[in-house]
Amino acid sequence: xxxxxxxxxxxxxxxxxxxxxxxxxxxxxxxxxxxxxxxxxxxxxxxxxxxxxxxxxxxxxxxxxxxxxxxxxxxxxxxxxxxxxxxxxxxxxxxxxxxxxxxxxxxxxxxxxxxxxxxxxxxxxxxxxxxxxxxxxxxxxxxxxxxxxxxxxxxxxxxxxxxxxxxxxxxxxxxxxxxxxxxxxxxxxxxxxxxxxxxxxxxxxxxxxxxxxxxxxxxxxxxxxxxxxxxxxxxxxxxxxxxxxxxxxxxxxxxxxxxxxxxxxxxxxxxxxxxxxxxxxxxxxxx
Length: 287
Fold this sequence. Notes:
Elements: E1 4-5, H1 8-21, H2 23-27, E2 34-38, H3 43-51, E3 55-57, E4 63-65, E5 72-74, H4 77-86, E6 90-95, E7 104-105, E8 107-108, H5 115-120, E9 126-133, H6 140-148, H7 155-159, E10 164-165, E11 179-186, H8 187-203, E12 207-214, H9 216-224, E13 230-233, E14 243-256, E15 265-266, H10 268-276
Parallel strand pairs: 1-5, 2-5, 2-6, 8-15, 11-12, 11-13
Antiparallel strand pairs: 3-4, 6-14, 7-14, 9-13, 9-14, 10-14
Helix pairs in contact: 1-4
Family: Belongs to the PstS family.
Pfam family, one: PBP_like_2
Membrane topology: Lipid-anchor
């Protein structure tokens, strides 16, 4: 089957029509679950499938993603949230830092995602937020920004966004550098990166930072091609040709529509089976 990729206004119209036809939810009956996933280059998707056991070794030893071909694919964190907020039958995974009150977070193994449960290790779906770079092509401004994100000045900014900060107690001292810094990659990191960039610019008046949101894989390619200075990556880095700085730990929140009263707590196995297409209807879940 062909994966459905839904973008922009098409997403809104598509989901509006879907939600209007799925009357089972409104009537309080069990319903078929609309599986929503991210695009193939997404770091969030890579982290999610690895941690839920949705990866298997193929014939050539390469990793294969077992996500059902019937999933609806969206190309951003905001797209996933929008999909779930409109479709009462949808389920998706997003960065905890992007979670808002338009959707409902699901407990995993009885644990709600939060900064506290991530830090304690109780909530199992978590991943690193990193800035990736090519040390052979690292500019003075980029190197200085990497020092900045490890300083105590960023800790409050990071933790106010439901992330676990990995910053040190070392203070940042501006070197009064001049220049431009371009950062691209994971849409999960774009919000926190914009806030960190604003803080850095306030301390370095002659530096201009541009943050471009797409996906982790695109960010990595751009760094390799020396198109940008830094890549925002939301999964563990496996490319040994590049260097990285982990500055925070994020949770992967599982979300459903606020009117969905059937999915409140899932085991990892149930979550995996939903995304494999082996659990299709809410009536198949343990009560």
